[in-house]
């Protein structure tokens, strides 16, 4: 066919026609590439090297043969080369799926990787267990319906080869590096002042009754005590009064009811565990049921629950579902919350 372009005048010959038909036949019947068919099972295979990403889009045909639809590769940027191995492998998965969004949107497909940890981290089982970067990437894939499976690296030849000889990074491509994470530091101190503690102690009815009981003496049994001070009977020999403050032992203050929630919040400000929060409070304060109060507070802490590696994980509330065949076949609802200041049974609406 090139002979037709060498002269000043274009002349289509019988040989050129035969050559053209041969090229068309080679494209249609190619064993390397095939046309995408939405009705066939689709597989996305990915791999990552130290400097590139590789991906292959294939489909399993009726004869059981897996045929390729498209190849893709690209070079990692300077920032991306600093990622850990698992982050590079996860980036390859996310990049490949989003690149072939036109083919994969609305259909269920298989995401195949040679990094076994991603079978958990990129699925709903990995929610709350992955790092922040992989968790954000996993959230970007929630709009797709897929299954993550592991394939040993010795069988992942094509994607591995593409990742080791990637295409150069397009200078005009959109910068996809992760944004810098900054910390917001508060300049206002939220510590409890002595004057506020004294004022709350003087206005607390429970401490008023406790001070009166300490000054009047304790009975031999707790049966005759008012209900508000019965919880203090077991430590009655350790209690003392100084002005409006009540002490247990030489230095531990009895906290008025109005300030207990605030003190637990301050003790848990850095979101350490239950044991360390209790230790911080026990050094200076005490009140009946303090341990239970700390445990209840931390069990409802949104930050701690989202980063707790030992907690039981649940599927994400947003899950891809098959497209309905007609109107009014599916009804969706939404949840608002959590409301931090609400009671435990009213945190969501």
Automatic annotation (TrEMBL):
<dbReference type="InterPro" id="IPR041373">
    <property type="entry name" value="RT_RNaseH"/>
</dbReference>
<dbReference type="InterPro" id="IPR041588">
    <property type="entry name" value="Integrase_H2C2"/>
</dbReference>
<keyword id="KW-0548">Nucleotidyltransferase</keyword>
<keyword id="KW-0540">Nuclease</keyword>
<protein>
    <recommendedName>
        <fullName>Gypsy retrotransposon integrase-like protein 1</fullName>
    </recommendedName>
</protein>
<keyword id="KW-0255">Endonuclease</keyword>
<keyword id="KW-0695">RNA-directed DNA polymerase</keyword>
<dbReference type="GO" id="GO:0003964">
    <property type="term" value="F:RNA-directed DNA polymerase activity"/>
</dbReference>
<dbReference type="InterPro" id="IPR050951">
    <property type="entry name" value="Retrovirus_Pol_polyprotein"/>
</dbReference>
<dbReference type="GO" id="GO:0004519">
    <property type="term" value="F:endonuclease activity"/>
</dbReference>
<dbReference type="Pfam" id="PF17921">
    <property type="entry name" value="Integrase_H2C2"/>
</dbReference>
<dbReference type="InterPro" id="IPR043502">
    <property type="entry name" value="DNA/RNA_pol_sf"/>
</dbReference>
<feature type="domain" description="Integrase zinc-binding">
    <location>
        <begin position="255"/>
        <end position="307"/>
    </location>
</feature>
<keyword id="KW-0378">Hydrolase</keyword>
<feature type="domain" description="Reverse transcriptase RNase H-like">
    <location>
        <begin position="37"/>
        <end position="144"/>
    </location>
</feature>
<keyword id="KW-0808">Transferase</keyword>
<dbReference type="Pfam" id="PF17917">
    <property type="entry name" value="RT_RNaseH"/>
</dbReference>
<dbReference type="GO" id="GO:0016787">
    <property type="term" value="F:hydrolase activity"/>
</dbReference>
